[in-house]
Amino acid sequence: MSTYKIQIKIGQAEFCAEGTEDSVRADYDRFLSAVASQPIDNGTAARIDDSGSHAGERGGEVDSVLLQAVFKVDQEHGWVSLKMLPPAESANRAADAALLLIYGFHRLLEQSEAPVTKLISGLRESGISVDRFDRTIAAHSSLILKGGQKIGAKFRLNNQGMSQAAAMIRKFFA
User: Rounded to a whole number, what is the distance in angstroms from the first to the last CA of the chain?
Assistant: First the structure.
């Protein structure tokens, strides 16, 4: 039997659990419900309905509580990394993680374009080793736009990419 472990901090609330996947996920769901009922920075409360989707989402965007649970922002280095990777069953796990990082740059750092050097650093910090970002994200080439060349390249998501990344976060982590 394998051990499932998770450690998350959302605002002032912290959650750490280790055990079977089912028991940890059940405890995590209760934690998210408790955190969602608490006021967040802007004075509003995030709400989670019975289906597990977040009621505070605007136009298909993921709410801030779930974003904080999925992403880690390193302000010192200026990159975003994933606290949790997409499921191992995912056929394109590295490409999915890369797509999610671009989404994280847009939502958390408010950068519509993410520099390739920062994306590679974010992937490595997340636990995925890559040599070339463009080859890693090639499976999602229809969802991204690329500007620049070589080390100066920048990536951003098109409209379908934004929707797809939000849907992936809700599917994998909500």
Answer: 24
